[in-house]
Amino acid sequence: MTTPGPEESLHPLTLQWSGMTHVGRFRKNNEDAFLGLTFDAREIRYLGKIGSGSLVEADFVFAVSDGMGGAKSGEFASKIAVEKITRLLPPSFGMAAQQMDSGFGDILRELFERIHGAISDLGRYYPECQGMGATLSLCWFMPGWMCFGHIGDSRIYYLPKDGEMVQVTHDHSHVGWLRRSGKINEREARSHPGKSSLSQALGGGNQKIDPHIGRVGCQPGDRFLICSDGLVDGLWDKRINEMARKELDASKLVLEAVADSGRDNTSALLIEIA
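The structure assignment produced for this chain is given below.
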């Protein structure tokens, strides 16, 4: 997905964000992980669950990863996924100023390949990690743009200030393909017995991956939501849209989803361009 970037503003763009993860009502451990960080060409700084910052002198990255694999191996996989992000992006700082028409996609593709390789290696060499994998949905914010990389069934939603909510990412599953193709509706997708069967993930025994990569032009007033499938299991799209446009508080989305379902770990990051 690519949309035209906005005209440069006389006012520096800032971001505000809120994040939360919850184990749910039935699972003993949380295999979800979420990450917020800001970086320039020299250093990376980790962000708290709630905050704000300027895009003038730094880029921002937010990501949600949902681990798979049983016991604690899924939890381990998601932690690897978010940790590897910090190694590749700082040298890429300033791409927006360099007219990044080509390049950001290659960087994100390499990032996903490195994470996939690291998780796959652990699965090969350590019996307790065999078969472990992770989803990853990542948003990279720079002035005027949100660049994204995605694999699995976590999601990125775009909520423009003036316009309808859009699911930016493709669910990597047969059910996701059926929904995108118009062969089933949201209700049928939510109750489909194969909805949790992924066609792509990081690690998990997959030989090759083809992450979904793109960018969205953004401007003040726009919001983005990154979430694990636990949130979608608890909330319909209409309700997600309603709540994500209100107070910038990811905990309200997560706690309502857990109350309505809670069968899975549930995570959300809500980001606004201000």
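Interim note for the steering committee: Confidence is low (pLDDT under 50) at residues 6-10. The longest strand covers residues 59-68.
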